[in-house]
Write a structure and sequence with these properties.
The complex is a heterotrimer.
Chain A lengths: L7 H11 L29 H12 L9 E2 L12 H7 L2 H4 L11 H18 L3 E2 L6 H15 L5 E5 L4 H10 L6 E5 L1 E2 L2 E2 L1 H7 L4 E7 L10 H10 L3 E6 L11 H4 L3 E5 L15 E5 L12 E5 L5 E5 L6 H4 L12 H38 L5 E2 L8 E5 L4 H9 L3 E2 L2 E2 L10 E5 L6 H13 L3
Parallel strand pairs in A: 1-15, 3-4, 3-7, 7-8, 8-9
Antiparallel strand pairs in A: 2-10, 5-6, 9-10, 11-12, 13-14, 14-17, 16-17
Helix pairs in contact in A: 3-12, 5-12, 6-7, 12-14
Chain B lengths: L7 E2 L4 E6 L2 E6 L1 H7 L2 E5 L6 E2 L4 E7 L3 E5 L4 E6 L2 H4 L3 H4 L8 E5 L11 H10 L1
Antiparallel strand pairs in B: 1-2, 2-3, 3-9, 4-6, 5-8, 6-7, 8-9
Chain C lengths: L15 H4 L36 H12 L22 H7 L2 H4 L11 H18 L3 E3 L5 H18 L6 E5 L5 H8 L3 E5 L7 H7 L4 E7 L11 H10 L3 E5 L19 E3 L2 H4 L14 E3 L11 E5 L2 E5 L16 H37 L15 E3 L10 H10 L6 E2 L9 E3 L7 H20 L1 H5 L12 H6 L11
Parallel strand pairs in C: 2-3, 2-4, 4-5, 5-6
Antiparallel strand pairs in C: 1-7, 6-7, 8-9, 10-12, 11-12
Helix pairs in contact in C: 3-11, 5-11, 6-7, 11-13
Chain lengths: 449, 127, 487
């Protein structure tokens, strides 16, 4: 076997040194009654060529966003990935290392995370960001737990209906056996209903969580939401599923959010059927010590030279065990590296311009679709690169019709938003050419005939 | 290691200085040595009511966390404000600058169970 | 590679922000082919203060240089106990990057992604066969999330049966994630002492009807197989509890013993340990969970099923605990693990386990006597020494740091907590006898240095990018992001 270096002679020598005759004796600590008495029922080992042939066959059965015209978003976004990224993350010093437990030989990972934390702070307008969480949904759930922990006795959390439905489901799962009451805040014109929010807030409310932009693509008025939440003594959690929007729109920190979480997939990660992504998590200084997850900090070595270490570890499970701020014991290491490289490449100007391009493309598509007979844009206010179209025909039928043209027109909203049964969530990024948008519009119109 | 004669000690490795019905509390030289470099201290607020045996604060080193327990019931009358900014005082001066809080004792008979310096030294040798 | 002689070139590198030059760019964007549109200016942010401005070569050099300060499995021997730092086959990486896997959008209709779903289904089946559980969910993002999912299912099962137990029993050798995950499900944690092995009697002593579950790692973090496991499972079941297994050490059991056959009700896998997917500097991993028949209704949704029409994502699971993350799990990690299983085959996986156990026992045989071995039972894939035999008050930390000078990644240190100054060595099956000999020679040389020149240990490492770092100052005055000095 190519991955196992042992020769038969070496195995003999090693057994002799150990003082046993057969490999089986090494397993004498396992009682006979606990042994598997047959071989594993799995196929035989394959050569690399055979493995790749089999996998290529499986990969060939999937529709790809590059060969079809895709307008799918909804928490996973199709953006261009610069060649530099895969080249750099393929350096095995990065991807075959583990958690930087030994800082002296992990300065590469540690400095990269420190830079990631800094860029997340800059982007979100917050003071402190951690070394990442699993994804946006679980980061959002951890944000809710943080808010409840920090607010001590308050046990109520309000979730905007505009928050990504998968994030809301994840929050519900995380809170299933924690003493927290989750209450949904309704929407009006695709954004959180402020009047309803004011009624639902009380002195037991620890936090309000909203999407920015929200699941329907709408840019929420965070400043106003923050004022309302703060007036009741609650924290405002902003969950950012499409962080490219922060290249253009005001940062949640500037608008008064207390906790900013989100998904970093847009910044250079392949779609990979939805995972792995990378969750980011940023707070104000006051919440630094109740943060979940890892943190990298700057310090000096014995010679006074700058270096980086994992720090404030007493919050974490390996020290505080059942009293830890979270059970998480990793971060999305390599994916934070991707985000770091992506943001470093795009920088101050590139991120802004790319966000403007996304905004303009979506605005164009929105206008073209709005002009079609029978189609309607569901909401009137500001969007980023996603918006809701109300279709004249059942969405499932429309989708099937367009799929025969190799177009993935968007996400049917009926399952998550029954009130938008005719709703189609359309996402347009820099990857969609005008030609593609025009083709989509023409195909949609074809449904009228 | 130093264990001043004039102080009393608890099994949770705190020292207590008694002045009538007000006591000063900190952690012992032994406790700070076991923890290593103290990096963070969390204390109650003035006016908080403490219950004997319940945790009133937290002391953290780089790789350990330790609760600090109230030796008696009573009201917190003073808190060492220097500690949050200079947690290393607990290492450098556990009995002087590193004091943590002063408590107005509700029932002075709570103080009867405390160890003297000799008894405490015997206690830590056994531990 | 052993020995402390040798030269290397270690270059300094500023932070991205310190290299930034106004107006420099590293991107190329396609020109806009639709009319320019602008949002309401009141919503638009000002420029992002101090965000980097760099060229492509700046970025490439920066990260390349950073990488040279790291140590990975490809750099050399990485015996980090409990983390199973085995070789990460390169074909796994090629497979995960196939456009048919990397470029599929999770919201695509299932009928258009039959290949991806088939792969997930096959992986579910393969993991089920390896572990002996009838069903497996691939959704959890990592081992700790797998634990959380496992305990959530246990609690959901109890509640569905009208039971409200409040406690979870965890041995003192367990990973810290175990109690943290139990607490997240609202359970009180009862720690049970083990003397190397968890005994029936120790479990019986704390077992009552108020126990929801026992969490056990098997083999445990000392590398010892819990030989009473069947009887312990029976004991817990008799009082209405369930048994959770932490599968971190499954690399010791493939083809030898299946946790699902032993009475265990739920177990998480770590694809990044046992199934060769790279650790990525801390993640992403993947933590699938196998369950016994009675827990199947409670599995997270969706799971992949197969019927006459093909492969599907099943959301119709009314008793499910719900979801713990977006979409379906860490798909690209699943591709890597599946690639590994295909390459190894059933026989190969068993052989991997045998060689992992052989390697750990060889290291043990070579070091026992010079290093103190607190638990002498027959160990499997890892071996735990203590600092007790070190001369001149040298500690485990010193040995670890000195190993860096010898060119090795140190083992796991100070874990498990039951061993004072633990040095936990897990060689994995990837290493040859020569590598192990050189490593053992280094450790023996260090033990000798402790006797004759202890300052070499205390001042180590001297050959790394930085010397020992001041962790106390880092924690006292946390500096968690870069900020402009003059700001």
């Amino acid at each position: 076997m190519r991955y196992l270096p042992h020769t038969e002679v070496e195995v003999r020598q090693m057994l002799e040194r150990i003082g046993v005759k057969e490999i089986d004796e090494l397993f004498s600590g396992i009682p006979e009654s606990c042994r598997l008495s047959r071989p594993l029922n799995l196929p035989e080992a394959k050569s690399e060529a055979e493995v790749m042939a089999q996998l290529r066959a499986l990969a060939g059965k999937n529709s790809k966003v590059f060969t079809w015209d895709s307008f799918l978003g909804g928490g996973a976004y199709h953006h261009f990935i610069p060649a530099v990224i895969d080249h750099l993350i393929s350096r095995s010093e990065f991807y075959t290392a583990y958690t930087p437990y030994q800082p002296e030989i992990s300065q590469g990972t540690l400095q990269a995370i420190f830079e990631f934390q800094t860029m997340i702070c800059q982007l979100t307008g917050m003071d402190v960001a951690n070394a990442s969480m699993y994804d946006g949904a679980s980061a959002c759930a951890e944000a809710v737990l943080l808010a409840v922990r920090a607010a001590k006795k308050r046990r109520r959390v309000l979730l905007s209906r505009g928050l990504n439905p998968q994030y809301r489901e994840t929050v519900a799962t995380y809170c299933r056996y924690v003493d927290v009451e989750l209450v949904e805040v309704p929407l009006v014109d695709g954004v959180t209903d402020m009047a309803a929010l004011e009624t639902l807030l009380d002195d037991q409310t620890a936090a309000v969580a909203v999407g920015y932009p929200n699941y329907l693509g709408r840019v929420e008025d965070l400043a106003k939401l923050a004022d309302i939440a703060h007036a009741a003594g609650a924290r405002l959690i902003a969950a950012v599923a499409e962080p490219l929007a922060l290249g253009l729109f005001k940062s949640p920190g500037e608008l008064g959010a207390d906790v900013v979480v989100g998904e970093g997939q847009s910044f250079g990660l392949p779609l990979s059927y939805g995972g792995p992504g990378v969750g980011f998590f940023a707070v104000r200084k006051q919440d630094m010590r109740v943060l979940p997850g890892r943190l990298v900090g700057e310090t000096v070595d014995l010679d006074g030279k700058r270096g980086f270490v994992l720090t404030l570890a007493t919050r974490e499970q390996h020290i505080r065990r059942e009293k830890a701020t979270s059970n998480i014991c990793s971060n999305q290491g390599l994916n934070t590296l991707i985000v770091g490289i992506y943001l470093a490449l795009h920088g101050k100007q590139g991120l802004k311009r790319l966000a403007e391009i996304n905004y303009s493309k979506a605005a164009y598509a929105r206008e073209q679709i709005a002009a079609l007979e029978g189609f309607e844009i569901a909401h009137s206010g500001e969007c980023f690169n996603e918006f809701v179209v109300l279709c004249p025909e059942p969405v499932a039928e429309l989708k099937t019709r367009l799929e025969t043209l190799e177009i993935l027109p968007g996400i049917a909203l009926g399952r998550d938003y029954p009130e938008l049964e005719r709703g189609l969530l359309v996402c347009v990024t820099e990857q969609n050419s005008r030609e593609q948008i025009d083709r989509l519009v023409a195909a949609l119109a074809g449904g009228e005939a | 290691m130093d264990f001043p004669e004039e102080l009393k000690y608890t099994e949770e490795h705190e020292w207590v200085m008694i002045e009538d019905d007000v006591i000063t509390v900190g952690i012992t030289d032994f406790a700070q040595d076991q923890l290593g470099d103290v990096v963070f201290v969390e204390l109650p607020e003035e006016g908080d009511e403490l219950e004997a045996g319940k945790s009133f604060g937290v002391v953290e080193s780089v790789k350990a966390v330790s609760d600090v327990y109230a030796p008696v019931s009573g009201e917190v009358v003073e808190v060492n404000d220097e500690l949050p900014d200079e947690p290393e005082l607990l290492n450098n001066s556990p009995y002087e600058d590193g004091w943590m809080i002063r408590i107005k004792v509700a029932d002075t008979s709570d103080l009867d169970g405390l160890m003297d310096a000799e008894a405490y030294q015997e206690f830590i040798e056994k531990e | 590679m052993s020995g402390t002689e040798g030269r290397g070139l270690v270059l300094d590198e500023k932070l991205l922000f310190e290299q930034s030059q106004p107006g420099r760019v590293g991107y190329s964007l396609t020109g806009l082919d639709v009319p320019e549109a602008q949002p309401d200016s009141r919503l638009v942010r000002k420029e992002i203060t101090d965000f980097p401005e760099l060229s492509e070569i700046d970025v490439v050099r920066h990260y390349t240089r950073l990488s040279t300060w790291n140590y990975g499995v490809d750099s050399g021997f990485y015996p980090l106990g409990s983390c199973t730092m085995k070789y990460n086959p390169k074909v796994n990486e090629v497979a995960a990057r196939l456009p048919g896997f990397a470029d599929i959008h999770p919201q695509t209709p299932e009928a258009l992604n039959q290949g991806a779903l088939e792969l997930m289904y096959n992986l579910q089946q393969d993991l089920a066969e390896i572990s002996g559980f009838p069903a497996v969910t691939l959704q959890p993002a990592a081992g700790a999330q797998g634990e959380f999912v496992g305990i959530l299912m246990i609690r959901a099962w109890h509640e569905a049966n009208g039971r409200k137990p409040t406690k979870v029993i965890i041995p003192d050798t367990a990973h810290g994630t175990n109690p943290a995950s139990a607490a997240l499900c609202g359970y009180d944690v009862v720690t049970v002492a083990s003397d190397g092995l968890l005994s029936k009697d120790a479990v019986a002593a704390v077992m009552d009807n108020d126990v929801a579950a026992l969490m056990v790692t098997n083999p445990n973090t000392l590398g010892l197989f819990e030989s009473d496991i069947r009887e312990i499972c029976d004991l817990v079941h008799e009082r209405g509890g369930l048994v959770y297994a932490d599968g971190a050490n499954l690399n010791a059991l493939m083809g030898i013993s299946r946790p699902g056959d032993l009475g265990i009700d739920v177990m998480h896998f770590n694809l990044h340990k046992t199934f060769s997917t790279p650790h990525g500097g801390g993640g992403p991993g993947s933590g699938p969970v196998g369950v016994a028949e009675k827990l199947i209704p409670f599995m997270p949704k969706p799971i992949v099923i197969k019927d006459e029409e093909g492969y599907k994502l099943d959301y119709e699971r009314p008793e499910s605990i719900g979801r713990v993350k977006s979409f379906y799990g860490h798909f690209s990690i699943m591709v890597r693990a599946y690639t590994y299983i295909l390459a190894m085959g059933g026989e190969g996986l068993r052989r991997a386990t045998e060689m992992a156990v052989l390697n750990a026992n060889y290291v043990r045989a070579r070091l026992e006597g010079e290093y103190d071995l607190p638990y002498k039972q027959r160990s499997l894939h890892e071996v735990v020494f203590s600092e007790a035999a070190l001369a001149n008050d040298c500690h485990t930390l010193d040995v670890a740091k000195r190993l860096i000078d010898y060119g090795y990644h140190p083992p796991t240190i100070y874990f498990p907590l039951v061993v004072r100054g633990a040095l936990m060595i897990e060689p994995t099956e990837s290493e040859s006898m020569q590598i192990l000999d050189e490593f053992c020679d280094a450790l023996l040389a260090i033990a000798e240095e402790a006797k004759t020149a202890p300052e070499k240990l205390r001042m180590a490492p001297v050959r790394a990018k930085v010397r020992r770092l001041d962790e106390a100052t880092a924690a006292r005055k946390p500096k968690l992001r870069w900020e402009r000095e003059d700001a």
